[in-house]
Amino acid sequence: MNTISKKLYRWVLVCFSTATLFQGCAKFETREFYADKPQSIIDQETLDAYKELKNYVQATGQPDFKLATELSYTDLVSNSVLYRLAQQHFDQISLTNGLRHLDAVQDDGSIRIPDFTSAMEAQASTGLSTHVGHLLWHENQGADYLQSLIADIIIPGESGKDIVVDFENDELGKSYPMIVGGDLSANRVVTDPDGKSGNALNIKGQQTFPQFQITLPEGRKLGDYLNVMIDFKGEGCCGLYGAGMRLAISANTGNVTFASFGGPSSFGVPGGQWGRGLIELPISSLNLTPAQKEWTEFVLTVGSATGSGDYLIDNITMSWEIVGETIIKTPAEKKEIISGEMEKWIKAIGEDGKETVKSWSVVYQPMDEDTPSELRNGTGINPDDLPTNTFYWQDYLGKDYASIAIGMIKAYASTNDQIFFTETGLLDNPAKIQGLADFIAYTDGKGTTVDGIATELSLNVGDNKEKVESTLQQLAETKKLIKISFDIGTGTTTNQATTALYKQQMDMYKWFIESYFNIIPSNQRAGITFRSPADQPSTSAWRPNQPVGIWTNSGGYQRKAAYVGVVEALQSQ
After folding, report:
1. Could you give the count of Cα atoms lying within 13 Å of 565 in the half-sphere of its Cβ?
2. Distance between CA 278 and CA 268 in Å, rounded?
């Protein structure tokens, strides 16, 4: 039997056997089973049937509008699931939480931003637009480093003593120039009769004063010296008393004008014994001129004005003191230093982001909370009293600090890049909007155009919609591009959120986005940014354990009801 016949045989046999089996049953009863899908699966399938969000954006008439989401540098570098999801749904990635001058500046002042560099490399291949901030803020700054550069230079004081003459290297019998009142030959270097201090100078004769050529140690000048001290040994007959000690300083040997002091005994020198370090003659008594105080070489004349001298002197010592000095940097010097540091910082960012970033938040939170018409500042506050890592660039560069920064980023990135100023807290402090608008007008007037205003709104279901609409209206009135980063919570933690709250969240997302489109003119729309695209985990620093996103943060980032609200709002453009 060939192969085909065998197969046919088997097929017939199977058919026969099956027929026999069915005939052998009293009755064949068909039973059908139906398994209903859980409503949760049906609902999720309905959500998943919607297109990716960017498919609902109408580009016509709003050329600057970007549908964006906030991510971290880690998301980009690791190519996280959330990053891959973002690439499907958004046309711009916003990175405004990773640039910290505090982390970037090194001890030597160099700038290292490896995470930013790697993120830019990852983003370059996606074709997505990139918005980066914030270049200048007052928090998370390398404040200690920056303050050290502009701090006063304190030169500490110094003091000491220099032995200017000690006779130890002199040959016995050597004599010195003298103003002589007696026998010059009797004034010789001798051995200390006590045998304790090596050599000494024996001075004999009436009104006889030795003169010593002094060269001061390098770095010191005569004006630094306070006193001349002399070791003295003499009897009452021969110098211990008399008319007192004499001191003079001159440019040359010869006649001098003396300053007079008490005799050696008045300084506590005992008769016939060495009085070491007891005679101390203040140089101020000489009334030196400013020119003399600059001398580093001079002639020192000293001795006891006695009528019958026969005494020993040794170890002529001059005590000195250099008063400490504080060099205070001028405002102009501080400005130059801080401007240089700003340029290093912005240069590093601009060069690494040049090919990828086309939108920059240059300054963040510039306006003062209490006086919104003014810039924040730390003027008049000791830097040590400011919060840790706080540094106000504007304190040293003035109101032009933003204009300076814009010039720098456009120089190192691209002149065509969009420039934004970002301010927060506008719902509760709407006066900031006018203050910011005025600051932008000032900056524009410096020839550095600010394209738009960016802000962050942290909303909850049930928030005052009139307040939100008023804020949007005031922003629109600035005539600048408006970019809003936002998220909407339920007012609860994730485990407390109910189906009803998620429905309110969906409605709130829809309402807010529609309000943006209704209030912000199309030519001013820079876009909306989902600050928290997914619900926040309990470990998050921002709204921890709150269901603020349009995706869950578990189960593979499932779409939430809020996703529908976003879609419907985008469809209403």
Report:
1. 22
2. 7
Radius of gyration of the chain (CA): 45
Stretches in the chain below the pLDDT threshold 50: 1-34
* Architecture label for domain 158-325: Sandwich (2.60)
CATH fold of 46-151+329-571? TIM Barrel (3.20.20)
Distance CA 217, CA 431 (A): 66
Each residue's pLDDT tens digit, 468-478: 999 999 999 99
pLDDT at 309: 87
Burial of 495 (0-12, 13-18, 19+ CB in 10 A): exposed
Residue spans of the domains in the chain: they are 46-151+329-571, 158-325
Tokens of 42: 């049906």
Sequence-distant contacts of 167-176: CB under 8 A, at least 24 apart? 167/198, 167/199, 167/200, 167/201, 167/314, 168/198, 168/199, 170/199, 172/199, 176/201, 176/210, 176/211, 176/212
- How many residues would you count in the chain? 573
The answer to whether domain 46-151+329-571 and domain 158-325 are alike in fold is no
